[in-house]
Amino acid sequence: MSAIAAPSGITEKASALRRLYFVRFAFAIVWALVMFTMTTELSPVAVVLLVLYPLFDVGAAVVDARSSRTTGSPALLYVNMAVSLAAAAGVGIACASGIPAVLRVWGAWAIVSGLVQLIVAVPRRRLGGQWPMIISGAISILAGASFIASAGADEPALTSAIGYAVPGGVFFLVSALRLGRTAREN
Fold it and tell me: In the 3-class helix/strand/coil scheme, how is 97-131 assigned residue by residue?
């Protein structure tokens, strides 16, 4: 047992984030497995899945913001909610124009949400388990740029969206496991 106990707000926040990150990991992996079967065309199921992903991000940000009220300002999480809602709408509209348009919207969303994730994770380092979130945010920014670039390919596919979800899910899993240590130690 530690001689200096962490404030209960930190322990509660770490536990809440841990649960959220496990759910985000599971969602990302299941989403990617289902989406893997439909990377070359925009079927109705693919459209629903593409819109659902940023909507799930909105829900996760809502849960995160509620638990963040006790440990800091959730203002950037509100920004993330707005950006992800706009992305869901944008992806839905872009689906009518084809895969290149979807990749451009998905890429813009990945850049902005990655930047927000990065900015939110840096001050949370004291909670533990945030380095995977910092790395994930940075990778999301780079991935977003690659989605936009790949939209101009001869035959663009949604494969890169799956390649975005799986590592993102793994980063959430690693962060959740590391946060478990914070929750146990405090």
Answer: CCHHHHHHHHHHHHHHHHHHHHHHHCHHHHHCCCH
What's the rounded Cα separation, in Å, for the pair 88 and 113? 12
pLDDT-derived band at 185, boundaries 50, 70, 90: low
Please tell me the distance from the alpha carbon of residue 107 to that of residue 143, in angstroms, as a whole number. 7
Where do runs of H (alpha helix) occur along the chain? Answer: 8-35, 44-68, 75-94, 99-121, 131-150, 159-185
Three-state DSSP at 6 gives: coil
Query: How far is CA 136 from each of CA 90, 120, 129, 180, rounded to the nearest angstrom?
Result: 23, 12, 12, 19
d(CA 6, CA 109): 36
Residue 186 pLDDT > 60: no
28 vs 17, 93, 99, 102, CA distance in Å?
A: 16, 22, 20, 18
Tokens of 63: 């849960």
Are the C-beta atoms of 53 and 31 separated by less than 8 Å? yes
Length of the chain counted residue by residue: 186
Q: What global pTM score does this model have? A: 0.84
Alpha-carbon distance 42 to 40, whole Å? 7
